[in-house]
Amino acid sequence: MEKKTVLITGSSRGIGAGCALYFAERGWNVVLNYSRKEPVELMDTLKEKGATFLCLQGDVSVPEDAERMVKEAVEAFGSIEALVNNAGITKDNLMLRMKAEDFRNVIDVNLTGSFLMTKAASSVMMKKRYGRIINISSVVGLRGNAGQVNYASSKAGIIGLTKSVAKELAKRNITCNAIAPGFIETEMTDVLSDKVKESILGEIPSGKLGKTEDIAQLAYFLASEESSYITGQVIAVDGGMSM
Ligand SMILES: NC(=O)c1ccc[n+]([C@@H]2O[C@H](COP(=O)([O-])OP(=O)(O)OC[C@H]3O[C@@H](n4cnc5c(N)ncnc54)[C@H](O)[C@@H]3O)[C@@H](O)[C@H]2O)c1
After folding, report:
1. Can you give the residue range of the structural domain that contains 204?
2. Which tens digits make up the pLDDT trace of 229-243?
């Protein structure tokens, strides 16, 4: 059987790296993307596992980078069957203190970056009449969050992007879905104080934090042929937090 290829943005660490390992362990070609620091350890792990992968530097919010990364992935592996738009940043502050630049910056990476990568990859998927686009939103995009107007807006925007792309591409056998993680243990959430973590924990019915594999497992299913009749959906993986 022909190997499938997944491109995962922001996969140098956290959820993206977790997804990369999960797909690689199941025989996919994996295209890693980092913006600043080459993920040397992750690459060593993938090599040890005998995975086929490519690691590309690129900023998802820069149109030329998005196009170049898709081109290089196709040159290496022939096609892209799945795209996971995972790259994301936070620049938290209360709304009244937030600088316009910090609002724009977060929208640029999280939302515009997802749009640019989707646009570039979907032209490849349309030719093949097959594709799976998986966008990483957030529970915060569903519920809002004090101190995160920029981040919540970007993650809510990703939901609109997901549904619109799903409608535009459904007839081409390309699905587009969003995953809305709750609180997942990564470097992004490590920076929160113990007090904040405790209060978040109090809001999670299952009483525990999520792991990167919790997201990787769903991303993998949404990238599979078996999920072909699911599109335009937002699926929360949050221990019941958004109920
Ligand atoms: N951790 C959580 O609890 C949680 C919850 C909900 C949603 N999310 C979302 O999941 C995704 C991954 O989160 P994480 O916790 O692994 O975060 P993380 O900070 O550990 O990883 C984010 C990754 O994105 C990359 N990145 C940042 N800007 C980029 C750019 N311009 N171009 C390319 N790559 C860039 C970073 O280098 C990093 O590899 C993000 O979109 C985040 O918003 C995380």
Report:
1. 5-237
2. 999 999 999 999 999
